[in-house]
Task: structure prediction
Amino acid sequence: MTPLAQLLPGQSGKVVSLNPERVVDQRLMALGLLPGMVVTVVRRAPLGDPVEFAFNGAEICLRQSEAADIWVDVAADCPIPRPPKP
Amino acid sequence: MSAAPLPRIAVVGNPNTGKSTLFNALTGLRQRVGNYPGVTVARKSGTCDLGGGRLVELIDLPGLYSLAAVSPDERVVIDVLLGRIPGEAPPDLVLVVCDATNLLRNCFLAAQIAELGLPAVLAVNQADVARERGIEIDIPLLADRLGTAVALVSAWKGEGIADVRRTLLRGLDQRPVLRRSEWPEAIAAALAEVAAAARDATGRDIPPALAQRFLFDSAPTLAESAGWAAPAREPALRAARDRVRRAGLNPPAAEPLIHYARLRRDLEGVVRGTGRESRSAAVDRILLHRVLGPVCFAVFMLGLFWSVFALAKGPMEWILAGVDGLKALAAPSLEGMPMAQSLVTDGILGGVGAFLVFLPQIAFLFLLVGLLEDSGYMARAAFIMDRLFGWCGLNGKSFVPLLSGFACAIPGILSTRTIEDPKARLATAFAVPFMSCSARFPVYALMCAAFIGPQHGALWESVAMVGMHLVGLLFAVPIAFILTRVVLRVRPAPFVLELPRYQLPKVKDVLWRVWQSVWEFIQKAGTIIFALTIVVWALSYFPRDEALAERARAVAVAKGADSAAADAAAAAAQVENSWMGRMGKSIQPVFDPAGFDWKLTVGVLASFPAREVIVSTLGITYALGEETGADSESLYAAMREARWTEGPRAGTAIFTLPTVLALMVFFALCSQCGSTIVTLARETGGWKWAGISFATMTTLAWLAAVAVYQVGTALMS
Result:
């Protein structure tokens, strides 16, 4: 298991757990980020934070501190992390 | 209009579903904008003819993802739907607007609405985009699965609007209720417990949907507003949540898990085609690129800003010319009635002019920001800028209001409405008036052209100009930090930002919003500013002493002045003798440490309703007549020759470099704008924060001006 915040741009993972006590996580669950959902890191903002994620048909930006308590499995069939394009 | 109230239909949906475009298409221009009591959330409603003369009232509610209310906007939605707004019954029907390209997520809100038990119908919007991306939706099957009428519509293209009308009619006639999710026994029992405990504590019936919010949401806002106080609430909720946990479920997670599991089943076979990658992704590879992104951002923002000034310049000149024309027209007809003449030309027309002249900037800012917002770019701008603002309690969405503040604080403060987090919204609204608005420009221009330019050269003149524009920013950011971290003591609110699909903005919708905002501003702020201007006029007009004025005129004539100069000398004597002049003299000791004489003090006092008044006020007190502008050589000369007449500095020049800088810094920081104060009070829901803003800015301005003058004088001696 890896914290979602540690995934690199281009990497995907399957959500294992969230922290339901956190208001952010509650909002994300309402947006469909539930265990089993595949989430992809699209890119980081030019200054490194926040991070753009794609899941459940939408692009959602989160600060890294907010993605800290979300754990994912980086599945074998997920794309190999590629370095961000220059 | 008939006396019987119209059936009321609430329009709800996720943000970026095209809900407002649909609302506009249904209601046309028959809209009213107001405010919900006690909160600064706009209440938009309009009438719609469903066909055959059946009129209904549509209420456009703020966009939201979930009924779990975090922001004031979201709380208003659940309050309206539950009929908890004073004087408003629950709506007769709910229209849930969904985005056809992301039906599953949009239906989560519909599933929560189902729990309310209100009659509801669906409009699946943006059908054109879905079709383009190869997504097909089986509408009859969806209607069957959800148990209600569903219309497929493209509000942007105006396709399917008639179908929405028919669906609304069916909704009103048949009152269909959305199918509810099935709750496990433990949750059903816990909900019954919560409802009973809340009913016992508050003495009111608790609808099941509200009991769900109490049980599932960790934020207690809705329970508090229902009057269920913590001492009774916490043990009851703990017991109910423990019951849910014993059944192996987690209360906050249970709701989305159950709704989504059911919706996945319901939507099976309804949506066909996964959808090709949208063009937005390709555009974002450039606009959010780590290098090109910020470059594009800077270009857009500079372009926006330049356009506002360029577009507004002409209309501002027309307004000024128009007001001057009216003055010239009115003055002769009031000849022989000096008081009425002064009241009309200086008071009424001057006040209206000072207020109207900034309307073009306000309108163009709203227009361009509105176009960028509807195109989907503003969310990207917030994504790019969040890091810069996040640390001080603001967020990425604070950038646009702050930037707008450099043209005019009013649209800046009004555009903080897009910030969901109430604390960040307040802090941003508080920081906006610090930005150096265009009304400060004449003051800087006057001081730079009269003193800094001639004495230190064009380079230092531009350094001073740029510096003055940065002073406000320098103060605003630490103040936002102090406000959010020390005064309000809040952790930064979650920043969950959706990047919507790019789309061509609908110009008609944006123009309509611009008109609504501008008209609201004219109505709400105009009257107060007008009254303030009349008060300042009266203070500087009364009491009249004609004998004194005649003596001043005689002295001027004896010195060889022509008749215009003699008139100006008489006017200056009247101002010196007026209440404003007397106030200036008695308050001057306060401004003495900043190097201001009584004439500058009068200028400062007279500028509190509108800061640009300083230039014409200085024109009057320096006996140059009223038609003095910031580019008037005679004013420069008079100011350069001004000397202290008494005290330790007697005989030395008033306008030394430290005085000039102190005056500019004072105007950069001081809260001298009636419109801003009124707008701030309206947007923060009361006079408290407007008062704090006024006190903070004015105190800071004084402290900074004194510091500049004292340090400057010490360095130069």
User: Anything to note?
Assistant: The first strand of chain A starts at residue 2 and ends at 3.
